[in-house]
Amino acid sequence: MVNQIPVPQAKYELLTNIRQPRWRTQVVCLTLSFLVVGVLFITRACLGILLLKAPRTDEFLEESHIDNAKIATWLRRARMYAESTKANQNADRNTSVGASEQYLRDTAGQVLVCYYTIPGDLNSSWELSPSYIDPHICTHIIVGFAGVVNSTLDIGDNSLIYKRVVALKNLEPNLKVMISAGGNSELHDGFSEMVKNHANRKKFIQSVLNVTKTFHLDGFDVDWEFPAWLGADNREKIHFVQLLQELRKEFDRSEEKLILSVAVAAPQAIVDQSYSIPEMAEHVDFINLMSYDYHFYVWYFPVTDLNAPLFPRCVETGYLSTLNVNFSAQYWVAKGMPREKIVIGIPAYGHTYKLDNPANHNLQAPASGFGELGVNGFVSYPTVCQFLKSGAINVFNKDSRVPYAFKDREWISYDNEESIFYKSKWIRTNGFKGAMILSLNVDDWKGTCYNANKTFPLTRTISKVLFEQTDK
């Protein structure tokens, strides 16, 4: 039968038989590749969701002094900050940010804003109760986080907590106590749904007024992380300004003279995408700049680095040179926010990494995951103190003005009294509104780092520098 086929036709059929399976194989391989990538992406997304919703355990609570209600929010923000690094090509690179200037001014108008996150279990010895808060350190205490549910401010079952914090004003009449909305409610699109139309915003603002009046609160803090970011509706940027404008209008009408503040992002890419800064500046009393989480362990950039550097290191160039407190604050000024309305955030927590090689423990050392201390890369200041007492080596980076510590495979970036002294001096010298600390809960409120007579050492350091009468 083969001999009956003409030679040219035989060659054609042989070539057809060879090419056809090869083409099909390529299609099959390409399809399988897409399927594998898709499965990996979905798996990673599911793991991230499960991690955020992981149940709280007493073991984690006792080790880190940070409950998972905080961790879910903080972890989400840290991951979005990390995503902003990947998206930095969208940042506006035409805006120049100059070096720090001298803006010495009277400290009478400066503030120390202290976030107090509602504990998951007040019966635990690891949780900060309102009765242990020193009311004389902070000028403002912001209690968080209320939810945004069905376009209303939802405080859940936490009425007693708000009452107990407000009661601190009996000991310090000048103290301002505010409520913050955000945190875990953002996981359920509370803000996105609420700001969509005027009716929803009006309903929300009325609920805010009801809560502030009921609990004798002094103001409201908006902690939406973040409008129009990571695929969200771009119109949220406009709706957010509308919300602030309408809040301001109703606050001015009220008899309580309520304070309006906003917790805002620090990375350049998020700032450009999420905020209309000149318009925001017209309506807010101040912003709380979340100038931390600049570096955090992520699988696509698995190296150690600093949580909240004040300045860039001399070896950092390009976008890496923007990941520091000084750049973020000056960038907000350059984009239209008056420096006298900017409150600089300082973290009382650190970030942990697990070193690949204990012998390689410098900055930018390869890491394979979160450290063993803390929860999901977050560690409280008392835990850092215990780490140092256990023999960890402390290194203070002179360029960035912040320390890090290491022992065996554990590596931690954190702030201590020395770094906070530098930051507070810088805040005062540059004429910013003041400092914000996140949070009182993870400062050493029990006095375990030194002694029981020195509680809240990080927060006290800020207060001492900001409110001293003369520079020394």
UniProtKB/TrEMBL annotation:
Q: Does the keyword Transmembrane apply?
A: yes
Task: Give the residue spans that cross the bilayer.
Answer: 27-52
Keywords assigned by UniProt? Glycoprotein, Glycosidase, Hydrolase, Membrane, Signal, Transmembrane, Transmembrane helix
Boundaries of every GH18 domain copy:
110-469
| Superkingdom classification of source | Eukaryota
Concerning SMART domains, the annotation shows: Glyco_18 (SM00636)
List, alphabetically, the SUPFAM superfamilies matched.
(Trans)glycosidases, Chitinase insertion domain
GO cellular-component term (any): extracellular region
> What Pfam families does this protein map onto?
Glyco_hydro_18
Q: Which InterPro entries does the UniProt entry name for this protein?
A: Chitinase_II/V-like_cat, Chitinase_insertion_sf, GH, Glyco_hydro18_cat, Glyco_hydro_18_chit_AS, Glycosyl_Hydrlase_18
Q: Could you state one GO biological process linked to this protein?
A: carbohydrate metabolic process
Q: Name one GO molecular function term.
A: chitinase activity
Q: Does the keyword Glycoprotein apply?
A: yes
Protein family according to the UniProt entry: Belongs to the glycosyl hydrolase 18 family.
The identity of this protein, by name, is GH18 domain-containing protein
Q: Which organism is it from?
A: Cardiocondyla obscurior
